[in-house]
Amino acid sequence: MEKRVRKAVLPVAGLGTRVLPGAKTTPKNLLNVVDRPILSYVVEEARAAGIEHLIFIVGRGQGAIEDYFDANPEIEGALEAKGKLDILAEVRRDLPEPGEMSFVRQMAPLGLGHAVWCARYIIGDEPFAVMLPDMLMAAEPPALAQAVAAYEQTGGNIIVVEPVPEGEAHKYGIVALDGRDGRLNRMTGMVEKPPAGTEPSNLFISGRYILQPEIFEILETQERGAGDEIQLTDGMAALMKRQDFHALEYEGTTYDCGDKLGLLRANVAFALRRPELADAARKMIQELL
Ligand code: UTP
User: Fold this and answer.
1) pLDDT single digits (tens) 135-160
2) Domain residues of the chain, as ranges?
3) Nearest residue by C-alpha to atom 22 in ligand 1
4) Contacts for 170 with CB less than 8 Å, ≥ 6 apart
5) Confidence of residue 1 (pLDDT cuts 50, 70, 90)
6) Looking at the domain that runs over 7-288, which CATH code has it been given?
7) From the CA of 37, how far away is ligand 1's center (Å)?
8) Which of 112, 206, 234, 261 best tests ligand 1's pocket when mutated (most atoms within 8 Å of CB)?
């Protein structure tokens, strides 16, 4: 019987270059989609998958993330005094249970593989999830819950994938499969940002993973790869020589909030999904067009 997935690593220590200068003083993942920070959606997704402990890998100048997940007596007191209880409930909804969240500093943004490795002592010897928070996933059941359900079938390692938009394979990690039958398939390889026309499938790695702790031994000694960064993809490719990996083509849509247009698209799409905003948002978009 495989061990249950109880912990998730959320690496947020990147520089967010593509959404500067907005991400200069507000960490990228605290930028709003409609009225909530990107991270709020991802935390909700983690909890829906049964995750009990969230480990954020943060960088310098990102103290606002810890503050966001802390009580704010001034704001909460003012809302209470004014009887604005619906807003108060929204403000409190993301707050952790005592001990539910840990924060680890990545002292230099050496790459996603390095960021994940920073969580090794907190994860210990059990399988864990990795969630890239700038990828927002609109899905029912939520994307990580779908990954956990797949993991309960196959064990090993799971990578959540999705058909890549035409002509964009060179921007992402792409998986190679051992045949394709249904949504859950054994993998034979993966490649980070393949040159156009060389991609081994049309499925990109969309930002949710379930990994076994042996990945840490590999990341520990791994050389720098693409972009002179320690790449998680390279580490997973090495682990695949020893352990099974399955790609799960999840049911849902990914919104990459890591660049300007993606963040705009997520804002529009999530506004249209909100019953109290949808009509007004649609009208506004039509007027603008
Ligand atoms: P990205 O490369 O998409 O994010 O990394 P970035 O570095 O913040 O953005 P750009 O490319 O400069 O615009 C994917 C995820 O991995 C985290 C990022 O914060 C992001 O959530 N990451 C990346 C780290 O935590 N540490 C790193 O060293 C690199």
Assistant:
1) 999 999 999 999 999 999 999 999 99
2) 7-288
3) 14
4) 193, 194, 195, 196, 199
5) low
6) 3.90.550.10
7) 17
8) 112
